[in-house]
């Protein structure tokens, strides 16, 4: 049996975070994202760097983005 892939297993020091173009001082939109060579993605809060980030395997990230783009009611756009 193989061990499942852990998208949190990256060294945080190697994460290059990019801030969403929609983030602004007072917008409430405060998303930052890090992509890794193997396709893993970290999603975090650029205004509260001490908060934990979310980590996605490539298939999980694709499903997450697809759900948002398709207007899934679990991911409402405010």
Commentary on this structure:
This protein has one helix spanning 58-69, and strands at residues 17-19, 31-35, 41-45, 54-56. It is of the alpha+beta class and 78 residues long. The radius of gyration is 14 Å and the shape is globular. A hairpin with a 5-residue loop joins β2 and β3. A four-stranded antiparallel β-sheet has the order 1-2-3-4.
Question: What key phrases describe this protein's structure?
Answer:
78 residues, alpha+beta, four-stranded antiparallel sheet, 4 strands
Quaternary structure classification: single chain
Give the biggest sheet.
4 strands, antiparallel
Low-confidence stretches: none
Helix/strand/pairing category: alpha+beta
What share of the residues does DSSP label as strand, in percent? 15-25%
Q: Which strand order spans the largest sheet, edge to edge or round the barrel?
A: 1-2-3-4
Query: Count of helical segments?
Result: 1
Distance between the termini: 43 Å
* Strand segment tally: 4
Whole-number average pLDDT? 83
Radius of gyration: 14 Å
Q: Topology of this protein?
A:
Elements: E1 17-19, E2 31-35, E3 41-45, E4 54-56, H1 58-69
Antiparallel strand pairs: 1-2, 2-3, 3-4
């Amino acid at each position: 049996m193989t061990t499942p892939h852990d998208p949190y297993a990256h060294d945080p020091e190697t994460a290059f975070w990019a801030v969403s173009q929609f983030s602004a001082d007072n917008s409430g939109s405060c998303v930052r994202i890090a992509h890794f060579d193997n396709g893993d993605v970290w999603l975090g809060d650029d205004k509260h760097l001490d908060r934990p980030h979310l980590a996605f395997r490539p298939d999980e990230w694709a499903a997450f983005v697809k759900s948002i783009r398709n207007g899934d009611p679990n991911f409402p756009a405010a």
